[in-house]
UniProtKB/TrEMBL annotation:
Coiled coil regions, renumbered to chain: none
Domain Bacteroidetes PKD-like intervals: 61-111
Name the UniProt record assigns to this protein: PKD-like domain-containing protein
Entries under Pfam families matching the protein: DUF4465, PKD_3
Organism: Saccharicrinis carchari
Domain of life: Bacteria
Amino acid sequence: MCFGIIESKQLISIFSEICEPKFIEIVVKFKMSKYLIYLTTCLLTLVLVSSCENKIKDIPPSEIYINMPLGVYEVKVNDTITLSPKITYDINSTYTWMLNNELVSEEKDLRLIPKSLQYLEYTFSVKNARGAVDTLIPVQSMYLIDFDEKELATDSFWVNTNNISSFVSDKIRFEVNGNSTSENWTGFTYSNLIGNKSSEDMEKFSAYKKPLERTTSIFGVIMLDAYGGSISLETADGEDHLFKSISVNNTYYVYDAIQNGKHGSKRFGGTMGTEKDWLKLTITGFNKNGTQRGSVDIMLADYTTGSNRNNSILGEWTTFNLQSIGKVSRMEFVMTSSDRDPDKINTPPFVCIDEIKIIE
């Protein structure tokens, strides 16, 4: 195709602005005839097309993006999860989901309802005119003990009116000794209290902060033994299981005691904040044969550096890994403190727990 008859200088200017050919060098020393202009136009058009073709941008192959927190999808046993990858340049694509080298689905999204504890690695593949790409998508089914099935009135906690010795939440049985009217009530309860309250007794069962990203605000509270005795939980089926993690936070009552020297506790760090104080929760696991396995220490307050700048009190819900304990059927909780008398700790022995995960 050729352009109409135009002045040669205008023609050169037009082609120079449209693209940058490898060479366009025309020196006009005389007025071209209309035929010469026509032939020159055709030649420059061919050069233009060739040059601009070299400048066509390459479209890269498709890429797969997936919002996978913590490197693995987690889903409760018998719950539903839909895996929905995002794909760039997703035009006329075909999809495959593979598990253990077997085809599972050819749909873009994969819907799963796990019926047991499993760890599965799916391979998701995309194929189109740009090529083929795949990615590995792991899924972990689990038991999640989060007390959400429990019912409480607003701003309250469970008081064990019937004086039972334990209660079950999902797959865990929790120890209870006495009730709210007992002189020494220990074990587990559950609560929805958050922050400071008008009654200091209620603050014992009030979390310093609300759990994040939750549909309900119910969590567990452990009332530990100040004299060093353990409080335990057990798997409801009595079998050994692998506990993945637990979420922990201080109660408002304990945080206030440590920070301000109240409720029978000293002010941690002393007046200058340099005294090396600490509060620790130790979790120890035992298998169904009674053999002790591993243990995990959780620092609820750490002033051990002797520096006011580095002193810390746990005030955020924090997840702690429990997998080093191994497979167990029972876990025992003990609280220890630098602030103690010969036979007991002076720090109030309360702590909040939530989201206990079992994966095997």
